[in-house]
Write a structure and sequence with these properties.
- It is a single chain.
- This protein is about 30% helix and about 20% strand.
- By secondary structure, it is an alpha/beta fold.
- The strands form four sheets. It has a nine-stranded mixed beta sheet. A seven-stranded mixed beta sheet has the order 10-18-13-12-11-14-15. The chain has a two-stranded antiparallel ribbon with strand order 16-17.
- β14 (about 325-330), α13 and β15 (about 360) form a beta-alpha-beta unit.
- α14 (about 365-375) crosses α16 (about 435-445).
- The longest helix has 14 residues, at about 300-315.
Length: about 500
């Protein structure tokens, strides 16, 4: 008995998904499109082979309950016997169908040493790390001739895995299920086949008939969730982390000439195996920041990176001396403990020799994200108005080829499920794709010129009233005072101007 005798797929995307000959196939898009059913029953296609083994997964085991309930109602029709302890179906031929869970790389390792002919992952968008999917592929093996290895998954837009799924499937495959040959995501020149089948609610007449109001309820969702779940829009919402980032607001035409009065500075996220990103920024007289261009790559030594940056500055018509500073990640100052006494220069020292001095960036992640969001804001709600007004964003990106890659990185950032106030940390794959290096670079650059929210008048009054003498003493003693302020201090205290020790030493009541 085959899967079609247990369950009949609808014509259209469900059938295309089941019949695809590609090795990896994603069935994704709108909610209610019948993706889970297609995945559940698709694992039955080879149960007539005695050595066939299927594995279906979700992020946690409780999330499998609905799929297990459906299997309990239908798998016995194919002669399946349910083993409650092992969460496994065994069929008369000896074929097996296992239910499991896997949400992290550590949990994926529980399948080490096992092999499955067919592996399916329901709601792959909840899987934050692509390397979990890649490890599961290593468990996908054919135990005997005649078996066809398959990797299958379902997903909706949004969620922790949105960025890597979009890059792996949506960007590389047509949405009609046609298989495409792609190079595997490593440097080993291995070819594989992938396919993407777009799901729509209209493709599931069973749900539309049983619950005709479901589509109406989807229309009540907030805009971002509506575009994800009701429209299946993989381009919507950027990635939650930087929700206000929009291509038509922040990606602007390239400047013909960089104005001479602008401040020019850089930001640098170093990497060798991981990609590096060096951004060249301009700041106008109003404090608006623009990413003029970016230099990126892999497997380059610091002198090679520095020379590329200098070449790019020259191409932009910017003299080397106009680069005011470069905010860089702290790894540029790390010295290997094995070579720290052998006068091996740090990355920062090598850049300084070539005329690009680096300074330590503010690497605080939470405050960096908040500052980033202040820069990209383009709408604002005013207290006396009932609706939002559009305002110019304080950060824009010139539409150069390198900057487009930076923008693609930014728009796919998502919030960290374990710390929603932060952006999820992601590493590039073996081909240098999918990491957050460009995001870190821009974050360093904007953090070097933070936007400090203005205090409300009441808060300002409260701060002054709390310790007025503290503000006075800080003004007088905690920073280097200009000559006029020193003379004012001497006049206030009546002390002679040659009483220098009093100026440079704090009074005992304020010393700390």
């Amino acid at each position: 008995m085959t899967d079609e005798q247990v369950w009949h797929p609808h014509p259209g995307p469900q059938t295309v998904f089941l019949q695809s000959a590609a090795y990896e196939v994603l069935y994704g898009g709108q909610a209610g499109g019948g993706k889970s059913d297609a995945l559940l029953y698709g694992g039955l296609r080879q149960i007539e082979h005695p050595q066939y083994k299927a594995l279906i997964l979700r992020r946690t085991f409780p999330e499998l309950r609905e799929l297990i309930d459906r299997s309990l109602a239908t798998f016995p029709l194919a002669g399946g016997v349910w083993n409650e302890r092992d969460h496994r179906w065994v069929f008369p031929t000896g074929a097996s169908y296992q239910f499991g869970y896997c949400g992290t790389y550590a949990e994926a390792l529980q399948y080490q040493g096992q092999q499955y002919t067919w592996i399916g992952y329901d709601e792959l968008g909840q899987l934050a790390e692509e390397r979990v999917w890649l490890y599961l592929m290593s468990r996908n093996r054919a135990a005997a001739p005649g078996l066809v290895r398959m990797m299958r998954a379902s997903a909706n837009p949004g969620g922790p895995g949105h960025a890597w799924i979009k890059r792996r499937f949506i960007a590389r495959c047509p949405n009609d299920g046609r298989a495409v040959e792609v190079e595997a995501d490593n440097n080993r020149k291995v070819k594989t086949t992938r396919a993407f089948v777009k799901a729509t609610l209209r493709d599931n007449p069973t749900l539309m008939s049983a619950d005709p109001d479901y589509e109406t309820r989807l229309a009540l969702l907030p805009e971002l969730e509506y575009r994800w779940l009701a429209l299946g829009d993989w381009d919507a919402g950027a990635g939650l982390g930087l929700e206000e980032l929009q291509r038509d607001k922040h990606l602007i035409p390239v400047l013909e000439r960089v104005p001479s009065h602008w401040t020019i500075f850089g930001a640098f996220d170093w990497g060798y195996e991981h990609p590096f990103a060096f951004g060249i920024f301009g700041v106008d007289g109003s404090g608006f920041v623009m990413l003029l261009d970016t230099v990126g790559g892999r497997h380059l030594q610091p002198p090679e990176i520095a020379m590329r940056v200098l070449d790019r500055l020259e191409a932009l018509g910017i003299a080397r001396g106009r680069l005011r500073y470069t905010a860089a990640g702290h790894d540029c100052w790390i010295t290997d403990h094995k070579t720290r006494y052998e006068n091996v220069p740090t990355i920062a020292e090598e850049f300084a020799k070539l005329g690009i001095p680096l300074r330590r960036a503010n690497i605080a992640r939470i405050s960096g994200v908040q500052n980033f969001r202040r820069y990209i804001r383009w709408k604002e709600r005013f207290a006396l108005e009932a609706k939002e007004r559009e305002i110019p964003p304080r950060f824009t990106i010139c539409n150069t080829p390198a900057n487009r890659r930076v923008y693609e990185c930014l728009e796919t950032r998502i919030s960290d499920p374990d710390d929603p106030e932060d952006i999820l940390k992601t590493d590039a794959n073996e081909r240098g794709e999918g990491g957050d290096d460009a995001y870190d670079m821009v974050r360093y650059g904007l953090a070097s010129r933070p936007i400090v929210p203005a205090l409300q008048p009441a808060a300002q009054t409260k701060e002054v009233d709390h310790a007025p003498h503290f503000d006075f003493q800080r003004r007088k003693f905690d920073r280097v005072s200009p000559r006029a302020e020193l003379e004012s201090y001497f006049a206030d205290t009546g002390r002679p101007k040659n009483a220098a020790p009093v100026v440079h030493r704090l009074p005992s009541r304020t010393r700390r």
